[in-house]
Every structure is written in structure tokens, then in C-alpha cells.
Automatic annotation (TrEMBL):
Keyword Membrane included in the entry's annotation: yes
Source organism of the structure: Marinobacterium aestuarii
Annotated membrane topology: Multi-pass membrane protein
Source superkingdom: Bacteria
GO cellular component, one term: plasma membrane
Keyword Cell membrane part of the UniProt annotation: yes
An example Gene Ontology molecular-function term: transmembrane transporter activity
Protein name: 4-amino-4-deoxy-L-arabinose transferase
Amino acid sequence: MNTTGMLLIALSAIMTGAANLLLRAGVLKFGDFSLAANRIIDGLIGLSLQPLFMLGMLFYGLAAIVWFSALSKLELSIGYPILVGLTFVLVASGSSLFFGEVLSAQKLLGMAMILGGIAVIAHV
């Protein structure tokens, strides 16, 4: 397993997780975002003025750049499941910590299974 590639995936997952948490915080501060045709433009303008949301967008972009580098070092069939699994665990944990979302026994079991699957895919 390529250590540099794995570190890049971990960094990309952390940045993607942070992006999702920042986007949620920004959307919550903004209020109700609607896809209704008569409200979407105002909503997008409002979100673009929300600093937490914009910071989340920046983190997404930076995470993508790191991911591009990881793609040059690892097989996609290995790297992508690891990225998605780690991101899921980080977002679920952060959602509980920062937004008070409940981590039920079912969610915790699912996260443990995901981490186990990552270990199998990564040959840890």
C-alpha cells in the first residue's frame, strides 16, 4: 500500500468532512434553502454571503485538489471506497459533536462495519 497515497486520502477525507460540516452550519445560519424556481436564485445569493458556507465550498475545492494527487498514486478501486468510508465516519461523528445529531447503536455498528471494510480494502 502506498503510504503517500493513503495520507492524501486521509487528508482529502478530513477536508471533505470539514466541508460538509461547514456547509451544514452555513445552511442552518442562512435558514430554509428551497429548490423552488422562484426562490433558488435568492437562496444561492444568500448562501454565497454566508461565511461558513463559503468556507465549506473552499474546503471542498481543496479536498478535490488533494484527491487528484491521491488518484495518481493509488488504484481508484482502493482509494475511492476508503475516501468515502472515512468521510462518512468523520461527517457522522462531527454531526453528533457539532449539531447534536444522535449516533444510535445502529449508526455506530454501521460505522464500525465501514471501518472494518476499509481495513480489508486497504490490506491493513
